[in-house]
């Protein structure tokens, strides 16, 4: 497999540290490896003075993020959250800063992205809480759809381009599929500037829906929709540039390396996101199984899709501001309110290590 690359003059290494040491002209690297490898690889690169494009989520623990921030004094790291970098999203933020909705009161986000069996079988960390004692916490809010958990703190701060800090969080974590981690969640919280948010996400669904974002202010409301290739916002005109967002991120990273342009997402910009992640487990009291009578499965060999009954309607009500518990869903569990720092990262690490296998009450189909 590597021979054709080597024939074209591409250097290939069995150990990334050999590459870092032997490639004398190296300026920057992209880390798009499994989540539990992010911190160690970023440290090795930063200690060698390299620029780093670190895929989302940067890490799982707030303490690990603080370690990286302390090491990266010159802000050489860009994080690969794409929600905040799209031109339509940044133009929408500018309109919010200009007072287009008056005082921003609430941000609501929903999305359903189905994940069939192959998704969880593709690697040894998919659907896991930890791997080799390192936290993974795989799930929609912490991996595939984490862009849109990171985004609300960016939109919420209408005073500057920076992110708003988290005040408190209430989280509900569920699993319909028999995996270690969660596949469905509902998050409700408030930022320090009084903007509240409500987020509903699931992988336990038959059909993919767009990411729907609703912004509510004292002078009206706005909607942002993210489909597979484009972003649409009622806050900006249809002529706003709509490029492939990964290209936007990487071009910004290249300009940052060359000319010092600010990265769209620095590690400091990830603090509210990691505060949310750190509060999810203790607020929910772990991950709760959705009983089999509320879950339907579809199998087209070799893949199986799990679907929570009426999850589409439940997500629609999240857009109206009602959490799963507030809707009275029969499998919902009332969460605790958690503030940043209330639950130490060390305790979250231990909790994720101490994960248990799904119980027998779940739908019994291989993950």
Written overview of the protein:
By secondary structure, this protein is of the alpha/beta class. It has a domain at 87-244 and 266-353: Dihydrodipicolinate Reductase, domain 2, CATH 3.30.360. 29% of the residues lie in helices and 22% in strands. The chain has twelve helices and 15 strands. It has helices spanning 3-7, 16-22, 38-46, 62-71, 87-97, 117-121, 147-156, 245-259, 271-284, 311-319, 324-327, 345-353; strands at 28-31, 51-54, 77-79, 104-112, 130-131, 134-135, 166-175, 184-191, 196-202, 211-217, 220-226, 231-233, 288-289, 295-300, 303-308. The protein has an eight-stranded mixed β-sheet, with helices on both faces. The chain has a three-stranded parallel β-sheet with strand order 1-2-3, with helices on both faces. Strands 5-6 form a two-stranded antiparallel ribbon. The radius of gyration is 21 Å and the shape is globular.
């Amino acid at each position: 497999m590597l021979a054709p690359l080597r024939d074209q003059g591409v250097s290939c290494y069995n150990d990334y540290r050999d590459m870092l040491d032997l490639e004398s002209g190296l300026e920057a690297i992209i880390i798009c490896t499994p989540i539990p490898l992010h911190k160690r690889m970023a440290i090795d690169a930063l200690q060698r003075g390299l620029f780093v494009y670190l895929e989302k989520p940067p890490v799982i623990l707030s303490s690990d993020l603080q370690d990286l921030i302390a090491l990266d004094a010159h802000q050489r790291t860009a994080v690969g959250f794409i929600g905040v970098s799209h031109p339509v999203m940044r133009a929408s933020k500018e309109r919010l800063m200009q007072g287009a909705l008056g005082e921003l009161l609430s941000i609501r986000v929903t999305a359903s992205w189905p994940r069939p069996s192959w998704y969880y079988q593709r690697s040894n960390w998919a659907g896991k809480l930890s791997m080799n004692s390192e936290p993974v916490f795989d799930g929609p809010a912490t991996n595939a759809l984490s862009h849109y958990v990171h985004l609300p703190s960016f939109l919420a701060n209408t005073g500057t381009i920076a992110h708003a800090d988290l005040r408190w969080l209430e989280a509900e974590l569920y699993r319909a599929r028999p995996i270690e981690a969660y596949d469905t969640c509902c998050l409700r919280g408030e930022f320090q500037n009084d903007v509240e948010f409500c987020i509903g996400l699931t992988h336990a669904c038959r059909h993919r829906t767009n990411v729907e974002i609703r912004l509510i202010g004292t002078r009206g409301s706005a909607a942002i929709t993210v489909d597979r290739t484009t972003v649409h916002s009622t806050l900006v005109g249809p002529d706003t540039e709509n490029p492939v967002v990964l290209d936007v991120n990487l071009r910004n990273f290249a300009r940052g390396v060359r000319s010092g342009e600010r990265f769209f997402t620095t590690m400091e910009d990830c603090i509210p996101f990691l505060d949310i992640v750190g509060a999810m487990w203790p607020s929910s009291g772990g991950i709760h199984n959705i009983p089999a009578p509320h879950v339907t499965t579809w199998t087209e060999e070799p893949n199986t899709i799990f679907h929570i009954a009426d999850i589409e309607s439940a997500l629609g009500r999240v857009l109206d501001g009602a959490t799963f518990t507030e809707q009275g869903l029969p499998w919902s569990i009332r969460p605790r309110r958690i503030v940043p720092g209330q639950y130490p990262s060390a305790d979250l690490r231990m909790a994720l290590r101490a994960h248990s296998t799904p119980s027998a009450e779940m739908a019994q189909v291989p993950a």
